Fold this sequence. Notes:
By secondary structure, the chain is of the alpha/beta class. It has 17 helices and 24 strands. The strands form six sheets. Strands 6-9-10-3-11-12 form a six-stranded mixed β-sheet, sandwiched between helices. Strands 18-21-22-15-23-24 form a six-stranded mixed β-sheet, sandwiched between helices. It has a four-stranded antiparallel β-sheet with strand order 2-1-4-5, with helices on one face.
Amino acid sequence: MSDETVASAPGADEVVLSARDVVKTYGGTRALKGVNFDIHRGRVTTLFGENGAGKSTLMKILSGVEQPTSGRILLDGAEVQFGSTVDARERGISIIHQELSLAPNLSVRDNIFMGRELRTPTGVDYKEEGRQSAEILKELGEDIDPAALVSDLRLGQQQVVEIARALSIDARILIMDEPTSALSATEVEVLFRVIADLKRKGVSIVYISHHLEEALQITDFAVVLRDGSITANALAKDIDLEWIVRRMVGDNFDLGEPPAGYEFGPVALAIDDVSVADVENPDRSVVDHLSLDVRAGEIVCLYGLMGAGRTELLEAVAGRVPVTGGRVVLQGRDVSRMSIAQRLAAGLGLVPEDRQRDGLVQTMTVGQNLSLSSVGRFVKGLFLSRDAERSLVEAGIRDVRVKTSGGAAPIGSLSGGNQQKVVIGKIVSTGPKVILLDEPSRGIDVGAKAEVFRLLADRAREGLAVVYSTSEVGECLSIAHRIVVLRRGRISAEFGPQAAKEEIMAASGEAVVV
């Protein structure tokens, strides 16, 4: 199939925002290499690409977060310069960032209207802000109290608040960078209905997502960015999933298969009749008398819908939340009363779902983040062995294939997917016996996902017990030896790697379309 350029597509004369020959450099790194990109009125343009391809950098330039090193930005055919997000917002451009930019200590209402409060002669009109916030949240299908603190919301609800803030600006161009990464299937359907309504109103959408099949449902134009350059573009009606993946990563995009050729070792992790209470309602259990054994070298996938108890189970096993009943046994040793640090030292590590809040220290470098959980190994008396730390960092970058200029690079200079790799590398570097990963592919493109899964498969061959959770049924059927389906805090079914997607979905309570 020959690529059709966006410029030749119907509606190309309705371009509202363009990037022309845009270059962006960070030190000696060229993140964008002369990019030409068009946004069409009332259409969805989806930007596909691996982590580090330059997608978020381009969107930050178009929304005023950053300025190009060279090149031009055209709005309605006239050259413009956005010195800040305020400049872009005043011209009707709004962005939903991949990493949440909410203030957790403020209310939902205050976050939605932050920096553009509704003022009266006597002060801020909190009542009207609350009314408008409730109205937008209702459109998004969420019954969230505008007065609730953001810190009290689950991650998916925080993502909805981020979307609500962008929608409240009444933008003519809306950039969505991974807007569904923490949303349930139902919440995604609501968002897609909102996008369709915005299109009918003439709003232009730029959409970035690693959920490729999902993105194809709403795309009008597809553009592929690779290593800072546009490599392909086409009308959505002329492409399919294979077209996208091959232009993103080439032919090698298989997520892998369960590692074979060895026998599992003894039970490495025993979850024995564990219960976990709901934080908001302690009388209710989000994990209810659940038991599960995982053997050395075994890879177990936990699958379930939002609220099934996957995250709560993993956090309880890792010590982040207390168990209200049962035991967690690591290699025959009861660790239920141990702290997180003690469990990590004993060989039990967790890669959390929210890397920004729980997995990284934003003021540290890539290397400092990678070595943070292993720092005790480098201390000799009152001194830190820099050579030993440097060796670990270099090995970590190599093992999880982090795209970075080196360990001294700021963690914020990495793409979202590469930051996720650093979090995984940090735990792997501790030499765990059991590793727990909560949605490890969140924010990771298909190529990076394959790399991470290959890493886990290689470590399993060496005897590492792996437990990972996912809400994507396709990921269950990649490297897992066993698929455990959770439903309302209990195990509803177990499957081998040859299971059908429909069986897994049905066991979770998910509606299956036939």
